[in-house]
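Deliverable D2.4 — example input (structure tokens):
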């Protein structure tokens, strides 16, 4: 029976889909049958980051319409046979899947994989609610910026209300030099504000952009870059391994913005 993990964020553009592609590929390379589900209806991008955009013929909507068999909508990665991609819809789709439909599709696949990672739409609207439904765990992606952290705090509250038992945090695009000059919140700042366990820390790097444009997850590199290693380590922590965090030399910030934001969060929780 698969562990079903929704990868989500409050704010868009924080690297959620990049995280899904890299952690999914890392799990597959570590020997686990892994299914990546793109639940971002109408704004599908996971196929691009995996380099699989030209291989999509059928989607989850086609399966539900009985236009094809389930197996025909599943795309096995030629670089890593243990990784499978499942687009729920095309970018031209206008009607979102219902909660019942996505639950039906995931139920059909649970026994076939070790891990199912659901790439959720950003935000907290109906698409997010639908993507969360089949999951029992969540990985929240956040950048060390006030808008991202504020939105992630809302998402975590919704996940808790929906009885997601295991929620972890990935801090993306950390810049140690900016933390040192108090121009960016530190990892500890973000972790303490949001109050959930830390699963991963990814340094900001041009290599992430280059790999994304090529459709090549960083974890496929023969010699892993720093962000590639950070993604692989995150996957290992999801497996339950005790892996030290990379030393990015990021001491706790004394940024007054962080203190003000702490006050905002505390006030919101007491209102």
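Example output (designed residues):
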């Amino acid at each position: 029976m698969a562990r079903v993990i929704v990868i989500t964020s409050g704010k868009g553009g924080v690297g959620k889909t990049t995280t899904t592609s890299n952690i999914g590929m890392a799990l597959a390379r570590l020997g686990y049958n892994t299914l990546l589900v793109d639940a971002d209806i109408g704004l599908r991008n996971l196929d691009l980051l995996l380099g699989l955009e030209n291989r999509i013929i059928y989607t989850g909507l086609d399966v539900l319409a009985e236009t094809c068999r389930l197996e025909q909508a599943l795309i096995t990665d030629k670089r890593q046979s243990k990784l499978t991609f499942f687009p729920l819809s095309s970018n031209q789709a206008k009607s979102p899947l219902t909660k019942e439909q996505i639950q039906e599709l995931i139920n059909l696949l649970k026994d076939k994989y070790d891990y199912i990672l659901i790439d959720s739409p950003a935000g907290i609207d109906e698409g997010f609610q639908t993507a969360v439904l089949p999951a029992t765990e969540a990985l929240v992606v956040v950048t060390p910026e006030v808008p991202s952290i504020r939105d992630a705090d809302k998402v975590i509250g919704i996940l808790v209300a929906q009885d997601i038992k295991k929620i972890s945090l990935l801090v993306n695009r950390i810049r140690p030099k900016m933390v040192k000059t108090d121009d960016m919140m530190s990892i500890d700042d973000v972790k303490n504000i949001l109050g959930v366990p830390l699963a991963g820390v990814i340094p900001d790097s041009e290599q992430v952009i280059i790999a994304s444009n090529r459709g090549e997850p960083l974890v496929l590199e023969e010699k892993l870059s720093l962000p590639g290693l950070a993604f692989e380590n995150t996957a290992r922590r999801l497996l339950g391994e005790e892996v030290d965090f990379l030393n990015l030399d990021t001491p706790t910030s004394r940024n007054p913005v962080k203190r003000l934001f702490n006050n905002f969060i505390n006030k919101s929780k007491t209102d």
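The CA atoms of residues 42 and 90 lie 6 Å apart.
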